[in-house]
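Chain A, query sequence.
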Amino acid sequence: MALDTATAQQALRTVRYPGFSRDIVSFGLVKGIEVSAEGKAVVGLSVTTADPEIPKKLYAEVEAALLQAGFIAPEIALTVTVPKTSPTAAQVVTGPTSEAGVGKVKAIIAIASGKGGVGKSTASVNLAVALARILSDRGKPGKVGLMDCDIYGPSVPLMLGVRGRPQIEGDVLLPPENFGVKTISMGLLIDEDAPVIWRGPMIMKTISQFASNVRWGELDVLLVDLPPGTGDAQLSIAQSMALAGAVIVTTPQTAAVTVALRGAAMFGKVNVPILGVIENMSYFEDDQGRRQYLFGQGGGQKVAAQLDAEFLGEIPLDANVRQGGDYGIPVVISHPDSPSGRAFHALGLRLLQLLGQ
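Chain A, predicted structure.
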C-alpha cells in the first residue's frame, strides 16, 4: 500500500470522535496532512472541547491508526480550543503536557497586516519593547513576550538583538530575553541561511509548539507577530489562542489600505476584536520640522474608520528605526525621544489602556 496523503486520510477515518459514531475526517477536525517520501506523516487536528481527556484520547488513537497503516513516527499537532464559557480560554496540545504555555498570559494580541513590506515586524518589536519599559517603570519587569510567527521571514531576533539557540529544559524551550522582552522565533531554531520550505501542517505544528512548549511564565502582554496574509498560520493562531484582540499595521497608500482591510476581515470571521490600527511610514520630517507625506495621507484613519476601530497613531519614516532594526537596538531604546520613539511609547500606553492595564 502506498504511503501517501490518501492513505493517511483513510487511516484517520477509522478514528471516531469520543462519544460519536462519526469519524474525525467527516467531522472536519483534520486540518492538514503531509506525508514525506520516507513514509512519515504529519497531521494537523483542531477540536473544541472543555474535556481534557478528549484531546489525550484523540492523540493516542490517531497515532495508533497511523502506525497501523504503516507510517513512521507520526507527528500530530492537535490544537484544542476551549469554549469561551470555560474558565480557560484556550490551550494547545502537541503531545505530553508540561508547565509551559500561555495559560498565565493576561492578554494575547495579534499584530497583523494584509500585505508584506508595511513594517509589521518592526512595529511589533518596538511596541513590545515600549510595553516592557512602561511595565518596568510600574515595577513589573519581564512581563512582555513576543512570539514571532512569521515562519518564512523570521526577522524578530535580528531586530531585537537576540542571538543563539534557546535553552531547553526537558521538552520545554526557555525563551531568550532582551530589553525586557521574552521572545521565540523560527529564526532562533534554524541557521540564518537556511530556507524554510514548509507546508501547512508543519507550520501549524511549529506555531502550536510556540504556544504550548515555551515557558513564557507570567506575562501581562504577549504580542504575536503574524505573517502577512490570511493563510494557515493566521487562522491557526486566531482559532487556537485566546486572543484579546488584533492590531492592524498598514501604510498610507491605497494598495496597502485595501489589503489591510481584507486581512482584517479574517478576525471578524473568528470573533477576534480589532483593537486598533497603526499607520507606519506615515510621513518624513525634514530638518526644519516640515512633514512630507511621501506615500499619501490618511490611509490608516480610513482603515480604522471602515473597521470601526481606534486609530492608534502614525509612525514616521525615520532612519533611526531602520538602523535600530539592523543593529538589534530598537528605536525606543536607541532614540527614545525621537518622533518615532515617542510614537511607539504612546502606542504602548494606549494599548495597555485598551486592555484595562
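The chain has a mean pLDDT of 82. The first strand starts at residue 30 and ends at 35.
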